[in-house]
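User: I'm writing a tutorial on reading structure tokens. Could you give me a worked example: one chain, its sequence, then its tokens, then a sentence or two explaining what the tokens reveal?
Assistant: Sure. Here is the example chain.
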Amino acid sequence: MEINIRHAVPEDLDAIHEIMLCNGTIRGTMRLPQQARHQTEKWLQPEDGVYRFVAQLDGNILGYSELVTYPHSPRHRHVGEIDMMLVHDKAHGKGLGSAMMENLVDLADNWMNLSRLHLTVWTTNLNAIGLYKKFGFVEEGIMPKYVFTNGAYADGLLMGRVLER
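And here are its predicted structure tokens:
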């Protein structure tokens, strides 16, 4: 099994849209079920400071990740937010999450000079929390009733990683 991480391109739209419709994505993000393709296409429009990647496993796009930075905010340029980390339901446990995190952390640390990364994850997503801890993220706070999902409120967990240079 070969994992390749590369920048997302417009031709990846259908594969990314399929990942965004997976049950795991719906449960773990703010996405709604049955999202229309044009909404995903709008989401993927180029934006300053947003870096989008796909993860390929044996040539098939089965992961998507996104790093948001703040290039137009002089006092916040040192910060990045991991806004999305998605793995297709059929590809969990194959190393895609670790490969995508390694790519984002390397980009932030070694190329963009970011000294802080943060993300939000539901407190019930123990696998994701474990992955983020593996890459040096620590729990910074709980946000009660952060999201309404599957008929109930779920708490959000803010996690951060500060690189001391």
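What the tokens reveal: Helices lie at 13-20, 23-28, 37-43, 96-110, 126-134. The beta strands are 3-7, 50-57, 60-69, 79-87, 116-122, 138-149, 152-162.
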